[in-house]
């Protein structure tokens, strides 16, 4: 969809992102974490969840929608369960704490879940499922978002893009990973298309009258469409419940998105469930079995046709972008403008 790109060193992008966040009042360690999350998304070709988001994060910090120095607090009613109040933190800060908590409880209990309230956008979900897989955990992760999706057949924005991330550790290559929006396209891709002057694929969105549109401006005013017709819509509705009903987090239709009002404290809800493979047969058994499945998927095509297991395309992109990333031109221009606005003596 995006045709105009510029290449930049990964180290330069990371350094710039950290500097921008620190200048916005984010502590250095949290800035490093958030920058790594965003840059990795760009390395994997997921530009909708990469540095495109950084100007929005900093504007939300400036206007109070995101708290750069939150006080994270946990409560619990069971040994393998916890609720995290993120105090309007950057979503990456909230999620890193939640992932660490899941690993801590799951190593003892075999399975653990953390529900998060009062958070914000956490970037690409695979950034978190990869950490769990590296520790031998299978994972289920979802989140609420701002209101951008109408249920199947509807025209009112009731749902978010309600991301779903599933991960399983494998003994070869990399984890088996599905990381997707439950709308036909991520909302960040609508923003990216608008910034780049591109059209959306057909079937992604409808305008305010419910008519199909490929215009990103009409899509932003109208609604995104769930993937998979009524079945995908059903999955999206249930993910909304999983993400927000366990805590005081808001549903999408109760939320003012920071894309619309950067001063809004979105109160996003996240849910992470981690399953420790070692508590079942064994970690090595599960990792070998997942690797077998992964390879069987890759071998399922006719001779000469490459078939990807879930997660393979993103890993291939990341490998090719290990040292240099091709960013959409509009994202690079926004980063330069932001660095100038913050009087940073650093450029890309």
Automatic annotation (TrEMBL):
Residues 298-327 are annotated as: Disordered. Signal peptide: none annotated. Transmembrane segments: none annotated. It comes from the Bacteria. InterPro entries: Mal/L-sulf/L-lact_DH-like_ah, Mal/L-sulf/L-lact_DH-like_NADP, Mal/L-sulfo/L-lacto_DH-like_sf, Malate/L-lactate_DH-like. Residues 298-318 have a biased composition (Basic and acidic residues). Keywords: Oxidoreductase. It holds the Pfam family Ldh_2. Belongs to the LDH2/MDH2 oxidoreductase family. This is Ldh family oxidoreductase. It comes from Arthrobacter flavus. The lineage of its organism: Bacteria, Bacillati, Actinomycetota, Actinomycetes, Micrococcales.
């Amino acid at each position: 969809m995006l045709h105009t790109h510029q290449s930049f060193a990964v180290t330069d992008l990371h350094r710039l992102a950290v500097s921008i966040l620190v200048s916005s009042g984010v502590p250095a360690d949290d800035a490093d974490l958030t920058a790594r999350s965003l840059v990795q998304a760009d390395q994997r070709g997921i530009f909708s969840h990469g540095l495109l988001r950084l100007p929005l994060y900093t504007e939300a910090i400036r206007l109070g929608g995101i708290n750069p120095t939150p006080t994270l607090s946990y409560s619990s009613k069971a040994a393998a369960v916890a609720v995290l109040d993120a105090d309007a933190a950057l979503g990456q800060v909230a999620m890193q704490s939640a992932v660490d908590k899941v690993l801590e409880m799951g190593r003892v209990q075999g399975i653990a879940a953390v529900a998060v309230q009062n958070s914000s956008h956490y970037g690409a979900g695979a950034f978190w499922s990869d950490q769990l897989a590296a520790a031998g955990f299978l994972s289920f992760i979802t989140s609420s978002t701002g209101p951008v999706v109408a249920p199947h057949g509807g025209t009112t924005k009731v749902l978010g893009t309600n991301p779903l991330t599933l991960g399983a550790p494998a003994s070869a290559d990399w984890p088996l990973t599905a990381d997707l929006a439950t709308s036909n396209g991520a909302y960040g891709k609508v923003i990216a298309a608008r910034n780049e002057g591109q059209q959306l694929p057909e079937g992604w969105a409808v305008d305010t009258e419910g008519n199909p549109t490929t215009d990103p401006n009409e899509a932003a005013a109208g609604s995104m469409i769930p993937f998979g017709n009524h079945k995908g819509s059903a999955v999206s509705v249930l993910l909304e419940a999983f993400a927000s009903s366990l805590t005081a987090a808001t549903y999408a239709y109760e939320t003012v998105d920071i894309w619309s009002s950067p001063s809004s404290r979105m109160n996003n809800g996240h849910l992470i469930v981690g399953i420790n493979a070692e508590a079942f047969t064994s970690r090595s058994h599960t990792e070998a079995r997942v690797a077998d499945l992964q390879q069987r998927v890759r071998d399922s095509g006719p001779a000469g046709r490459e078939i990807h297991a879930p997660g393979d395309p993103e890993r291939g992109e990341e490998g090719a972008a290990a040292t240099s990333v091709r960013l959409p031109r509009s994202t690079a221009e926004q980063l330069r403008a932001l660095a100038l606005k913050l009087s940073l003596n650093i450029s890309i």
